[in-house]
Write a structure and sequence with these properties.
Subcellular location: Late endosome membrane
Function: Component of the ESCRT-I complex (endosomal sorting complex required for transport I), a regulator of vesicular trafficking process.
Helix content: 55-70%
Oligomer: single chain
Low-confidence stretches: 6-15
Organism: Cudoniella acicularis
Family: Belongs to the VPS28 family.
Structural class: mainly alpha
Order of helices and strands: HHHHHHHHHHH
Shape: globular
Radius of gyration: 27 Å
Largest sheet: none
InterPro entries: ESCRT_assembly_dom, Vps28, VPS28_C, VPS28_C_sf, VPS28_N, VPS28_N_sf
Length: 235
């Protein structure tokens, strides 16, 4: 009585498949995400940044759970942070990356521990007093380590006087200061917090960005105060 019709899925706007286009697609051919070498390098660099951020977050979790030793954590964290900064020195990568918050939003990343570590720019074992400070002489401290820490303070202050004001000039020197101090004493001292604050402030700057004249005066005052506080712990 009624003729049975074959059912088809509706095709909006009377869509007719383009068989010519389909014929040009090879299912066995590798899909290219980029056309040029520069585009491939850019994608590879952004993928590396993504991997570093994820790894940093997992590393921080492992350290908080005592699943990794302090020395291994410090070495790996320091290496990852250096790799992160090195990749972003490329102008094309930095332009595409924009900033950490933008990158996280674009790729839907939930990495609070990595975010904080990148913001500070140093392993937590460096910014906090070490529990492995060497104690070998009569005063409870290794004389060689004291000398190294003193020299690092002086080198940093001399750099300010010589006009070395760029972030990429000051940050490594100040990192040396806090690391050498941590090897000498695990005690907090007057001005130590200022060293960490300046490390964080410098880390937020672009590599070639320079501190202002007012910042130089404040930085020099804070470092002299920290140096005196450091020496007071040795008495």
């Amino acid at each position: 009585m009624y003729q049975t019709r074959q059912a088809y899925a509706p095709t909006p706007h009377s869509y007719i498949p383009n068989t010519t286009l389909y014929a040009t697609i090879n299912p066995d051919e590798e899909v290219k995400l980029s056309e040029t070498r520069a585009e491939r390098d850019l994608q590879d660099s952004l993928a590396e940044v993504f991997s570093i951020i994820i790894t940093l977050d997992e590393l921080e979790k492992a350290y908080l759970k005592d699943a990794i030793s302090e020395s291994d954590y410090t070495e790996i964290c320091d290496r990852l942070l250096k790799q992160y900064r090195a990749i972003l020195t490329d102008e094309a990568v930095a332009r595409e990356f924009v900033d950490l918050e933008t990158f996280k939003m674009e790729w839907d990343m939930e990495v609070p521990r990595a975010t904080e570590r990148i913001r500070i720019g140093l392993p937590s074992t460096v910014t906090a007093p070490s529990h492995n400070a060497t104690t070998t002489n009569n005063n409870g401290t290794n004389g060689t380590l004291i000398l190294e820490a003193t020299q690092d303070f002086i080198t940093f202050l001399d750099a300010l006087k010589l006009g070395l004001l760029a972030k990429d000039q000051l940050h490594p020197l100040l990192s040396d200061v806090i690391q050498s101090v941590n090897k000498v004493t695990d005690r907090d001292f007057d001005g130590r917090g200022k060293i960490v604050q300046w490390l964080i402030a410098l880390n937020q700057m672009k590599a070639t960005e320079e501190v202002s004249e007012d910042q130089v005066r404040e930085l020099e005052l804070d470092m002299n105060s920290a140096y005196q506080g450091f020496k007071a712990t040795l008495k």
